[in-house]
Amino acid sequence: MRSIGIKICVVLGLMAAPAAIHAQSSAAPIADTNSAQSAAANRFAIFTPTTTPIRHRIDYDIWDFALKNIVISMGPSNRSVPFAPVRPLGTRMRQGHNSRYRLEGSMVGFSFLDAEVIASLTEYRRDLESVADTLDISSLPRNEQLAFWLNLHNVAMVEQIANAWPVRQPRSIEIDGVPLDDAPFITVAGVAMSPRDIRENIVFANWRNPKVIYGFWRGEIGGPELEREAYTGANVSSLLDGGATNFVNSLRGTQKNGDRLDISALYDETRRFYFSDFETDVRAHIAEYANEEVTDILGRTTLVRASIREWDIADLSGGSRGANYLGSSRPGISPGMAQLLIQRQQKLETMERREERTGRVIFSNIDLPGDPPNKNAVE
User: Fold this and answer.
1) Which of 69, 120, 188, 302 is least surrounded, with the fewest CB atoms within 10 Å of its CB?
2) Are strands 106-108 and 71-73 parallel, antiparallel or unpaired?
């Protein structure tokens, strides 16, 4: 067991206490993959889940604490386009967000992360990587494995975007000349990998349920949100269901355009893994999580087009330092950020007046006496 400290200096001025990653070593054999069709696939075969898992778990208290302090949930979508942001008097300078999806998903307070905090994120990412030096990840229960890969991916993305910040779009970030998504800066069990490798060559290759796509945060407003709690073997299935519901029923997930259902480009990107008969499969998937309004849209459209994209950063300040005209003693509070938070509050108050639900309940996958092992696994 290793113990590391991570400090998160945020809006409330909170400081994280030292926490630990708990892992136990295992000598369980690693299953060979049956679907290796390339050298790249062969490299990741060692992460194919075994059929006889060892019931260990990894503790993510440190990441959970960080998420609760750096992530702001914008609340569920009300499927309304917000008013255009007001520009400061006497200037045409854009501050903060102007995305039509800015009141959906979640935002990270990157302007509050100083060099010491970012270094702690790097330390934590490396600590997660080192878990595989003593623990065979593939021998864990499937939900534990899935939680590990989701958390590692998201820690790495937050770390690298924080390193590059201020930046308007995460897709513009490069590491040694390679786009962030394809840069192999993560190493697990001696295997160098990129964020895309974790998604496509490990998780998508070994998990059949398409709800796993909602667990990966890419740093963009248009993608699935970053949850305010770490994934664990106990909560991963419920959190993914919640993420799927929020995304499917948001404007960045689904829109009606005449007789056509416009959907997120995320579905086209993952079609070879989960939506081979694209229109039929993606409609069935959306219907599984659709609320009444989106169910109605499904019934009144025939064509499908994966055309919804938003690459702007999911950052409270919109990827810009901005000028502080508020006289605040808190660093990083710009007019654009303040305006976004005011709009968020107004939206949530309106939804509350209309008695629209703004929260969710998470049920842990608790094994009861007599339950078969791994019965709640995300397959």
Assistant:
1) 302
2) antiparallel
Contact between 160 and 175 under an 8 Å Cβ cutoff? The reply is yes
Instruction: Give the pair of three-digit tokens for residue 38.
Output: 């390339």
Each residue's pLDDT tens digit, 14-52: 323 323 344 433 333 333 334 445 666 789 999 999 988
Q: Are 312 and 97 in contact (CB under 8 A)?
A: yes
First-to-last CA distance in the chain? 29
The tokens of 102 are what? Answer: 């800015």
Partners of residue 4 on adjacent β-strands: 19
- Alpha carbon separation from 333 to 14, 101, 129, 146, 320 (Å, rounded): 16, 21, 34, 36, 11
- Beta strands in 173-302, from DSSP E residues, in sequence order: 174-175, 178-179, 186-188, 191-193, 254-257, 260-264
Residues 184 and 192: beta-carbon distance below 8 Å: yes
What are all long-range contacts of 328-333, with beta carbons under 8 Å and residues at least 24 apart?
330/11, 331/111, 331/112, 332/109, 332/111, 332/112
pLDDT in tens, 59-70: 999 999 999 999
Say if CB 77 and CB 109 are below 8 A apart: no
